[in-house]
Design goal:
The complex is a heterodimer of chains A (343) and B (175). Chain A is of the alpha/beta class and 343 residues long. Chain A has 2 domains: 157 residues, Aspartate/ornithine carbamoyltransferase (Rossmann fold); 147 residues, Aspartate/ornithine carbamoyltransferase (Rossmann fold, 3-Layer(aba) Sandwich). Chain A contains 12 helices and 10 strands. With 175 residues, chain B is of the alpha/beta class. Chain B has 4 helices and 8 strands. In chain B, β4, α3 and β5 form a beta-alpha-beta unit. Chain B is globular, with a radius of gyration of 16 Å. Classes of the chains: A alpha/beta (343), B alpha/beta (175).
Chain lengths: 343, 175
């Protein structure tokens, strides 16, 4: 009999503790928080409370992907368009899957087979899509500010899936979601973002999200790959990975974006990886519980050695899984805000 | 504000509900208890404890969040914004007898949402509904199998279940 009660009791405690921490997160300021944004353009504009709210909401979406029917109905009858003016595999797939798991209809729109190649402007394209009854536009564009421009000119919700070198908010959200999962909180953590910072919208969004949630961020890379405005950002900088590797709790290795590199920012790939690659040797000097991240796709042997990418500290595949839950949460929330504001 | 059940009456009612459920459920039915967030979750845990004692074997207990299945998600909200929380059911529902627990049965819309959510999680042998309080005002053809207390409440009045875990004390009031 006492064994039976123990089982019941253990479950009770476990469950109320989780519930409690969650309620605490949401009730942070005494009254219930209300999400009011029908667009997600960047994390620079968001408060720490808003970021936490997205992450808390994402927790509720995690289980949809593991149960027998991997679908829930909240976006039934809604249309989500993936409007991608730049190549993307995982972000596009992740958004499409997130939208379909919420029962939305998904329309794929790519630059190559659309009338954009016939000279249609961004706004014309979007207004045409809107006339077909699109509710949420997920946009990736090579021009910084394109999602913002779009959000000011159409009624549909706009979600930024990457604009120029500006922001990639859902990637950063899944990064901080993963860190929160691994470490409990970002408060006081030391995080290094390593590599081609200047061409990385991921680095920018990460930096906003991580610092807002209380982490100390150091950007690491060769001077030629540091952004021009780095002095005005709320971060430290270092030109030496060896200097920071021993101190950090989390390390995010960015992809060298060969397709974007102009000039010769570093002498050779070999030299780059000698100074800025995450090698097995460097890992031996890192904290034993360091969390190793990469936004993908990895250039194996360039940013990191395969042993590290596939090692026990790596959360790279967990990031991809979490990306789904985070994108479901974002789509759900912008739609919720749109439902509450009269058009 | 009128108290219709105090702490002692709530406890008695839950024990009686467990007795009724136990009388109609055998171990072969594989009963599991699932509470609807958030008050139903707490009641489910208490009920699971009573039922485990009566049946002399542990009855698994889980929590269901029905937010994604609500039928008013796309309607302009006046009161609180719907908050998505986690569903925590650490066992399979296939071929189980699910005792679904909620605090108040009123319009039936929450239960409708819960039924849709449950069948997306598996295929139970049966689903039975147990509520602490029921009142008039059904908008869907849904009735409880186990009712703790039938409240006589006028339209426009509100039945509030307060529980120690969430509200600091056990009582059911009509406002």
């Amino acid at each position: 009999m006492s064994r039976i009660l123990n089982i019941v009791e253990r479950h009770t405690h476990h469950s109320s503790r989780r519930q409690h921490s969650m309620t605490m997160a949401i009730m942070r300021k005494g009254k219930q928080f209300r999400w009011q944004r029908k667009h997600l353009i960047g994390l620079r504009d968001l408060s720490a409370e808003e970021i936490h709210y997205i992450l808390d909401t994402a927790q509720g979406f995690e289980q949809i992907s593991t149960r027998s029917v991997k679908k829930a109905p909240p976006l039934r009858g809604k249309v989500v368009v993936n409007l991608f003016f730049e190549d993307s595999t995982r972000t596009r797939t992740s958004f499409a899957l997130a939208a379909s798991r919420l029962s939305a209809d998904v329309v794929e729109f790519t630059m190559k087979n659309s009338s954009v190649s016939k000279g249609e402007t961004l706004l014309d394209t979007a207004r045409n899509l809107e006339s077909m009854g699109v509710d949420i536009v997920v946009i990736r564009h090579n021009a910084a500010g394109a999602p913002k421009l779009l959000s000011r000119n159409i009624n549909a919700c706009v979600v930024n899936a990457g604009d120029g070198y500006c922001e990639h908010p859902t990637q950063a959200l899944l990064d901080v979601y993963t860190i929160r999962q691994m470490k409990g909180s970002l408060e006081g953590l030391k995080i290094a973002i390593v590599g081609d910072i200047s061409h990385s919208r991921v680095a920018r969004s990460d930096m906003w999200a991580m610092t807002k949630l209380g982490a100390e961020v150091t950007l690491v890379g060769p001077p030629t790959l540091m952004p021009a405005d780095v002095g005005r950002l709320p971060v430290n900088t270092s030109y030496s990975l060896d200097e920071v590797i021993e101190k950090v709790d989390v390390i995010n290795m960015l992809r060298i974006q060969f397709e974007r590199l102009g000039g010769n920012p570093f002498p050779s790939i070999r030299e780059y990886s000698r100074y800025f690659g995450l090698t097995v040797e460097r890992m031996q000097r890192a904290k034993p519980d360091i969390v190793v991240m990469h936004p993908g796709p990895i250039n194996r042997g360039v940013e990191m050695e395969s042993e590290v990418a596939d090692g026990t500290n790596s959360v790279i595949l967990r990031q991809v899984t979490n990306g789904l839950a985070v994108r479901m949460a974002v789509l759900f929330l912008v739609n919720q805000a749109a439902a509450e504001t009269p058009a | 504000m009128k108290v219709i059940l105090d702490a002692e009456q709530i406890d008695k009612t839950l024990r009686r509900l467990a007795e009724e459920i136990a009388a109609q459920t055998s171990r072969a039915d594989d009963p599991v208890i699932i509470g609807i967030r958030s008050r139903g979750e707490i009641l489910a845990e208490r009920l699971a404890e009573h039922l485990s004692r009566r049946l002399n074997h542990p009855v698994p207990c889980g929590t269901l969040d029905i937010t994604l299945y609500r039928d008013d998600l796309n309607a302009p909200q006046s009161a609180d914004q719907p908050l998505v929380r986690t569903t925590e059911i650490g066992f399979a529902l296939d071929d189980k007898t699910v005792i679904l627990v909620d605090d108040v049965l009123y319009t039936g819309r929450s239960v409708r949402a819960a039924l849709s959510a449950l069948i997306d999680l598996g295929r139970p042998k049966a689903i039975r509904l147990a509520v602490l309080v029921e009142r008039e005002g059904r908008e869907f053809p849904i009735q409880a199998d186990y009712t703790g207390y039938k409240a006589e409440v006028r339209p426009g009045q509100f039945v509030q279940v307060n529980l120690i875990e969430s509200d600091g004390r056990d009582e059911v009031v009509v406002e």
